[in-house]
Protein backbone atom coordinates (compact mmCIF):
# COMPACT_ATOMS: atom_id res chain seq x y z
CA UNK A 1 0.00 0.00 0.00
CA UNK A 2 1.41 3.36 -1.00
CA UNK A 3 2.17 5.51 2.01
CA UNK A 4 0.65 8.97 2.23
CA UNK A 5 3.11 11.64 3.32
CA UNK A 6 2.59 15.23 4.36
CA UNK A 7 4.72 17.72 2.45
CA UNK A 8 6.44 20.12 4.86
CA UNK A 9 9.28 22.58 4.48
CA UNK A 10 12.11 21.16 6.52
CA UNK A 11 14.19 23.87 8.23
CA UNK A 12 17.69 23.86 6.76
CA UNK A 13 20.79 24.98 8.62
CA UNK A 14 22.66 28.26 8.42
CA UNK A 15 25.27 26.54 6.21
CA UNK A 16 22.64 25.87 3.55
CA UNK A 17 21.17 29.36 3.84
CA UNK A 18 24.67 30.82 3.59
CA UNK A 19 25.35 28.81 0.43
CA UNK A 20 22.08 30.14 -0.97
CA UNK A 21 23.19 33.71 -0.29
CA UNK A 22 26.46 33.02 -2.10
CA UNK A 23 24.47 31.68 -5.05
CA UNK A 24 22.35 34.83 -5.18
CA UNK A 25 25.45 37.02 -4.91
CA UNK A 26 27.19 35.07 -7.67
CA UNK A 27 24.14 35.41 -9.90
CA UNK A 28 23.99 39.17 -9.30
CA UNK A 29 27.73 39.59 -9.90
CA UNK A 30 27.42 37.50 -13.05
CA UNK A 31 24.62 39.68 -14.38
CA UNK A 32 26.73 42.79 -13.76
CA UNK A 33 29.76 41.19 -15.42
CA UNK A 34 27.80 40.11 -18.49
CA UNK A 35 26.27 43.57 -18.80
CA UNK A 36 29.70 45.20 -18.48
CA UNK A 37 31.23 42.92 -21.11
CA UNK A 38 28.42 43.54 -23.59
CA UNK A 39 28.46 47.30 -22.93
CA UNK A 40 32.23 47.50 -23.44
CA UNK A 41 32.05 45.71 -26.78
CA UNK A 42 29.09 47.77 -28.00
CA UNK A 43 30.57 51.07 -26.82
CA UNK A 44 33.91 50.39 -28.49
CA UNK A 45 32.31 49.16 -31.72
CA UNK A 46 30.04 52.20 -31.96
CA UNK A 47 32.83 54.63 -31.15
CA UNK A 48 31.21 56.00 -27.99
CA UNK A 49 34.10 55.02 -25.71
CA UNK A 50 37.52 53.63 -26.52
CA UNK A 51 37.95 50.42 -24.50
CA UNK A 52 41.41 48.77 -24.53
CA UNK A 53 41.44 45.40 -26.27
CA UNK A 54 43.05 43.74 -23.26
CA UNK A 55 40.17 44.80 -21.01
CA UNK A 56 37.59 43.65 -23.56
CA UNK A 57 39.31 40.30 -23.99
CA UNK A 58 39.57 39.84 -20.22
CA UNK A 59 35.89 40.63 -19.67
CA UNK A 60 34.80 38.28 -22.44
CA UNK A 61 37.03 35.41 -21.26
CA UNK A 62 35.90 35.75 -17.64
CA UNK A 63 32.26 35.92 -18.75
CA UNK A 64 32.51 32.87 -21.00
CA UNK A 65 34.89 30.67 -19.03
CA UNK A 66 35.16 31.63 -15.36
CA UNK A 67 31.63 32.81 -14.58
CA UNK A 68 29.73 29.66 -15.68
CA UNK A 69 32.06 27.38 -13.74
CA UNK A 70 31.85 29.59 -10.64
CA UNK A 71 28.04 29.76 -10.75
CA UNK A 72 27.59 26.01 -11.25
CA UNK A 73 30.15 25.32 -8.51
CA UNK A 74 28.36 27.53 -5.98
CA UNK A 75 25.04 25.98 -6.98
CA UNK A 76 26.51 22.50 -6.44
CA UNK A 77 27.66 23.41 -2.91
CA UNK A 78 24.21 24.72 -2.03
CA UNK A 79 22.41 21.71 -3.51
CA UNK A 80 24.74 19.18 -1.88
CA UNK A 81 24.39 20.72 1.58
CA UNK A 82 20.62 20.79 1.32
CA UNK A 83 20.51 17.25 -0.05
CA UNK A 84 22.45 15.87 2.89
CA UNK A 85 20.24 17.65 5.44
CA UNK A 86 17.00 16.58 3.77
CA UNK A 87 18.07 12.94 3.90
CA UNK A 88 18.91 13.32 7.60
CA UNK A 89 15.56 15.02 8.27
CA UNK A 90 13.75 12.14 6.55
CA UNK A 91 15.00 9.75 9.23
CA UNK A 92 13.72 12.02 11.97
CA UNK A 93 10.30 12.61 10.35
CA UNK A 94 9.28 9.38 8.56
CA UNK A 95 5.69 10.53 7.92
CA UNK A 96 6.71 13.72 6.14
CA UNK A 97 8.47 14.64 2.94
CA UNK A 98 10.15 17.84 1.69
CA UNK A 99 8.14 20.39 -0.25
CA UNK A 100 8.22 20.29 -4.03
CA UNK A 101 10.50 23.34 -4.05
CA UNK A 102 13.01 21.71 -1.72
CA UNK A 103 12.97 18.56 -3.80
CA UNK A 104 13.63 20.46 -7.02
CA UNK A 105 16.32 22.60 -5.38
CA UNK A 106 18.27 19.79 -3.74
CA UNK A 107 17.09 16.36 -4.91
CA UNK A 108 16.97 16.39 -8.70
CA UNK A 109 17.67 13.14 -10.51
CA UNK A 110 20.91 14.71 -11.67
CA UNK A 111 23.66 14.79 -9.06
CA UNK A 112 24.68 18.41 -8.28
CA UNK A 113 28.29 17.80 -9.34
CA UNK A 114 27.38 16.36 -12.74
CA UNK A 115 26.94 19.70 -14.58
CA UNK A 116 30.11 21.06 -12.96
CA UNK A 117 32.20 18.11 -14.14
CA UNK A 118 30.70 18.38 -17.63
CA UNK A 119 31.61 22.05 -17.83
CA UNK A 120 35.17 21.30 -16.73
CA UNK A 121 35.44 18.49 -19.28
CA UNK A 122 34.19 20.66 -22.15
CA UNK A 123 36.45 23.61 -21.28
CA UNK A 124 39.50 21.41 -20.73
CA UNK A 125 38.76 19.56 -23.98
CA UNK A 126 38.65 22.85 -25.88
CA UNK A 127 41.84 23.95 -24.15
CA UNK A 128 43.55 20.71 -25.11
CA UNK A 129 42.59 21.13 -28.77
CA UNK A 130 43.70 24.77 -28.95
CA UNK A 131 46.98 24.30 -27.08
CA UNK A 132 47.77 21.06 -28.89
CA UNK A 133 47.30 22.85 -32.21
CA UNK A 134 49.44 25.85 -31.22
CA UNK A 135 52.32 23.96 -29.59
CA UNK A 136 53.89 22.52 -32.80
CA UNK A 137 54.00 25.99 -34.36
CA UNK A 138 55.74 27.41 -31.30
CA UNK A 139 58.27 24.57 -31.33
CA UNK A 140 58.90 25.04 -35.04
CA UNK A 141 59.58 28.76 -34.50
CA UNK A 142 62.01 28.02 -31.67
CA UNK A 143 59.98 30.03 -29.14
CA UNK A 144 61.24 28.42 -25.96
CA UNK A 145 59.17 30.39 -23.44
CA UNK A 146 55.97 30.15 -25.50
CA UNK A 147 56.53 26.42 -26.01
CA UNK A 148 57.03 25.91 -22.28
CA UNK A 149 53.88 27.83 -21.45
CA UNK A 150 51.84 26.03 -24.11
CA UNK A 151 53.19 22.65 -22.99
CA UNK A 152 52.35 23.39 -19.35
CA UNK A 153 48.85 24.51 -20.32
CA UNK A 154 48.37 21.38 -22.42
CA UNK A 155 49.43 19.14 -19.52
CA UNK A 156 47.05 20.96 -17.17
CA UNK A 157 44.19 20.68 -19.66
CA UNK A 158 44.77 16.95 -20.12
CA UNK A 159 44.90 16.41 -16.35
CA UNK A 160 41.69 18.41 -15.89
CA UNK A 161 40.01 16.40 -18.66
CA UNK A 162 40.98 13.08 -17.04
CA UNK A 163 39.79 14.34 -13.64
CA UNK A 164 36.49 15.53 -15.11
CA UNK A 165 35.78 12.20 -16.83
CA UNK A 166 36.39 10.39 -13.54
CA UNK A 167 34.20 12.91 -11.73
CA UNK A 168 31.34 12.46 -14.20
CA UNK A 169 31.33 8.72 -13.57
CA UNK A 170 31.43 9.11 -9.78
CA UNK A 171 28.64 11.69 -9.86
CA UNK A 172 26.51 9.42 -12.05
CA UNK A 173 26.91 6.54 -9.57
CA UNK A 174 26.14 8.77 -6.60
CA UNK A 175 23.13 10.26 -8.38
CA UNK A 176 21.73 6.78 -9.02
CA UNK A 177 22.18 5.84 -5.36
CA UNK A 178 20.50 9.07 -4.25
CA UNK A 179 17.52 8.44 -6.55
CA UNK A 180 17.04 4.97 -5.07
CA UNK A 181 17.28 6.37 -1.56
CA UNK A 182 14.78 9.12 -2.37
CA UNK A 183 12.34 6.58 -3.84
CA UNK A 184 12.58 4.46 -0.68
CA UNK A 185 11.90 7.45 1.56
CA UNK A 186 9.14 9.32 -0.27
CA UNK A 187 6.37 8.54 -2.72
CA UNK A 188 6.01 11.53 -5.04
CA UNK A 189 3.30 12.65 -7.45
CA UNK A 190 4.04 12.09 -11.12
CA UNK A 191 4.20 15.83 -11.80
CA UNK A 192 6.91 16.24 -9.17
CA UNK A 193 8.84 13.28 -10.56
CA UNK A 194 8.84 14.96 -13.97
CA UNK A 195 10.19 18.20 -12.49
CA UNK A 196 12.98 16.30 -10.77
CA UNK A 197 14.05 14.87 -14.12
CA UNK A 198 14.79 18.35 -15.51
CA UNK A 199 18.59 18.84 -15.33
CA UNK A 200 20.18 22.10 -14.29
CA UNK A 201 21.80 22.87 -17.67
CA UNK A 202 19.33 21.23 -20.03
CA UNK A 203 20.95 17.80 -20.44
CA UNK A 204 20.87 15.05 -17.86
CA UNK A 205 23.18 12.08 -17.18
CA UNK A 206 24.18 10.55 -20.49
CA UNK A 207 22.55 13.30 -22.50
CA UNK A 208 25.13 16.03 -22.14
CA UNK A 209 27.13 17.23 -25.10
CA UNK A 210 29.76 14.74 -25.94
CA UNK A 211 28.04 11.80 -24.24
List keywords for this structure.
mainly alpha, 2 strands, elongated, 6 helices, disordered C terminus, 211 residues
Structure in words:
The chain is mainly alpha-helical and 211 residues long. It contains six helices and two strands. It has a two-stranded parallel sheet. Helix 1 packs antiparallel against helix 2. The radius of gyration is 22 Å and the shape is elongated. It starts with 5 loop residues before the first strand and ends in a 15-residue tail after the last helix.
Task: Give the count of helical stretches.
Answer: 6
SSE succession: EHHEHHHH
Which strand order do you get reading across the main beta sheet? 1-2
**How many β-strand stretches?**
2
Helix content: over 70%
How far is the N terminus from the C terminus?
39 Å
Q: Report strand %.
A: under 5%
Low-confidence stretches: 204-211
Radius of gyration, taken over Cα atoms and rounded to an integer in Å:
22 Å
Question: Strand pairing plus helix content: what structural class?
Answer: mainly alpha
Largest β sheet strand count, sense and barrel closure: 2 strands, parallel
Can you give the mean pLDDT? 87
Shape: elongated
Amino acid sequence: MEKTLDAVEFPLSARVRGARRWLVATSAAGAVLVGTAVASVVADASGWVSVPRAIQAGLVLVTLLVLPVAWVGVHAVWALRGRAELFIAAGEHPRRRPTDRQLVNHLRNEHPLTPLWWMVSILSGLGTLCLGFALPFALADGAVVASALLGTGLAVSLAALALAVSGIRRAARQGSEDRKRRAELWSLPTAVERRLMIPLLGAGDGAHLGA
